[in-house]
Input
Amino acid sequence: MQQVNIHEAKTHLSKLIEMAVQGQSFVIAKSGKPMVTVAAYTPPPDPANRIGFLKGSLDVPADFDSMGNEEIQAVFECAE
Output
């Protein structure tokens, strides 16, 4: 990984940014001591795209709305 000093980074910032965008990250150093690593920004995944990500992978039974009705009714009838 390439290391540049702060003065050189200020002078050649546009060129260095273009290098980072192309995948060549680099280190900015102060007095020869590495301070920061510069790499291309990768945006996080859009949470809006998660909606519906399981579509088609689950099967909902046709009687889903009435499942367990008898058991529920029995519980309430016994409570009286």
Remarks:
- The radius of gyration is 30 Å.
- The beta strands are 2-5, 26-30, 33-38.
- The chain has a mean pLDDT of 89.
